[in-house]
Design goal:
Layout lengths: L2 H12 L5 H8 L3 H8 L7 H10 L4 H12 L5 H15 L7 H16 L3 E5 L1 H13 L3 E6 L14 H11 L3 E8 L1 H4 L2 H16 L3 E6 H4 L3 H12 L7 E5 L3 E13 L6 E12 L2 H6 L12 E3 L3 H14 L2
Parallel strand pairs: 2-3, 3-4
Antiparallel strand pairs: 1-7, 2-5, 4-8, 5-6, 6-7
Length: 320
C-alpha cells in the first residue's frame, strides 16, 4: 500500500464512508479513481492532495510531498523521504518560546551552507562556535594567533574559550598555539606583560604555547606564501586560525570592538566579528598552521618569563 492510500483510509474512517463510491463523492472524483487511489495504484493530483489535507486538518505540503514520493522511482524515494522528514520537522516547530523557531531557522541556514563545505558565523555566535569546535576535538588543535590580545583577562576569549581548551587538554587533545608578536607591541611594557600573562595562562591549562616575532617571520618565504593563501580566502589582516583534528579549520575574517558594561565606564573588548569554518580538502592542505611549528629559526616554545625576556631582548636589538 502506498503512503497516500493510508490518508484515503483515514478520510473514510473520519467521515464514516462505507464504500469507495462514498469516498469518491466526498472527494469529488469518479468511483474508479477513488478505488485505484485507495489501493495505492494511482497517485492523486496536487489539487486533490490539498483537498484531502483540508479534510484531515493537515498541512497540504505534507501530502504533496507524499504524492511525489509515491510516484517517484525507487532510486529517488530516499530523497523524497529526506524532504518529507525535513518538512515534518519544520511543520512541528512550536511558535513559542521564540527561541525555538529562531534556533530552527539558524540550523536551516547552517544546513544550506553545508554543500559548500563552509560555514560562516558572526558576532557572539562566532565566538560561541569556536568554543563548540574545541569541545568536539579528539586528537589535536594547532592554532596561530596574531590578534592574541583577545585571550587577555576581560577579553572575548577569556575565560570560556580558555576553559574549553583546558577541558580538551585534560581529555588528551594535544594543543599547540603560536602567538605572533610585533616590534611595535613589544615597545610597550604593559603589552609585554599582557603577552606573558596570556602565555602563562595557556601553559597552565596544558597548552603547548609558542611565540614568534612578526618581523622575523616576514623573512620566511614559506610564511609569506601561507599569509597570501589566507588573504585570498578573505582572512582578516591579523591572522587567527586553528585546525581541529586535521579535518576542520576556522579563521577570523574580521574583528570589531564593543563596549561591555552598563554601570560605570564601559570596558572595550575585541570581538571576532566574522568567523569562517571549512573542511574543504584544498583549504585544509594550504591553510594548515602545523608547518609553522617546525620553523624553529623563528618560532620558540614558551618556557617562562625569564627565557621569553631574553629572547625578546635579542629580537629588539636586531630591529633597527
Amino acid at each position: 500500500m502506498s503512503e497516500m492510500a493510508t490518508y484515503l483510509e483515514a478520510v473514510k474512517e473520519r467521515y464514516d464512508l462505507g464504500s469507495d463510491y462514498a469516498l469518491a463523492e466526498k472527494l469529488g472524483i469518479a468511483q474508479p479513481d477513488a478505488n485505484l487511489m485507495r489501493r495505492g495504484l494511482k497517485v492523486p493530483k496536487p489539487e486533490l492532495c490539498i483537498k484531502i489535507a483540508k479534510l484531515l486538518n493537515k498541512n497540504p505540503v505534507e501530502l504533496l510531498l507524499i504524492a511525489q514520493k509515491d510516484k517517484a522511482p525507487s532510486s529517488a524515494k530516499e530523497y523524497w523521504t529526506l524532504a518529507q522528514t525535513a518538512v515534518a520537522v519544520m511543520l512541528h516547530v512550536p511558535k513559542t518560546p521564540k527561541y525555538i523557531p529562531k534556533k530552527v531557522e539558524a540550523i536551516g541556514r547552517e544546513l544550506r551552507q553545508l554543500e559548500a563545505q563552509t560555514l560562516t558565523y558572526e558576532g557572539a555566535e562566532a565566538n560561541a562556535e569556536a568554543v563548540r569546535l574545541v569541545h568536539t576535538a579528539e586528537r589535536s588543535i594547532d592554532a596561530l594567533m596574531e590578534r592574541w590580545n583577545i585571550w587577555k583577562k576581560g577579553e572575548a576569549l577569556y575565560p570560556n574559550y580558555l576553559l574549553a581548551n583546558q577541558a580538551a587538554a585534560k581529555r588528551g587533545v594535544v594543543i599547540r598555539r603560536l602567538l605572533v608578536l610585533t616590534h611595535e607591541q613589544m615597545l610597550q611594557e604593559a603589552v609585554v606583560n599582557d603577552a606573558i600573562q596570556v602565555m602563562g595562562d595557556q601553559q597552565r591549562v596544558g597548552i603547548n604555547i609558542f611565540y614568534a616575532f612578526r618581523e622575523e617571520l616576514d623573512r620566511s618565504p614559506a610564511f609569506r606564501r601561507f599569509e597570501e593563501d589566507y588573504r585570498r580566502q578573505g582572512a582578516a589582516r591579523d591572522l587567527n586560525a586553528a585546525m581541529f583534528d586535521r579535518e576542520i579549520l576556522i579563521f577570523s575574517q574580521s574583528y570589531g570592538q564593543m563596549d561591555l558594561g552598563v554601570v560605570g565606564p564601559p570596558t572595550p573588548i575585541t570581538m571576532i566579528n566574522q568567523l569562517e569554518i571549512t573542511w574543504k580538502p584544498e583549504l585544509l592542505r594550504d591553510l594548515d598552521p602545523a608547518p609553522l611549528f617546525d620553523m624553529t629559526r623563528y618560532v620558540f616554545e614558551y618556557s617562562g618569563p625569564h627565557a621569553f625576556k631574553m629572547e625578546l631582548a635579542r629580537f629588539m636589538r636586531s630591529v633597527p
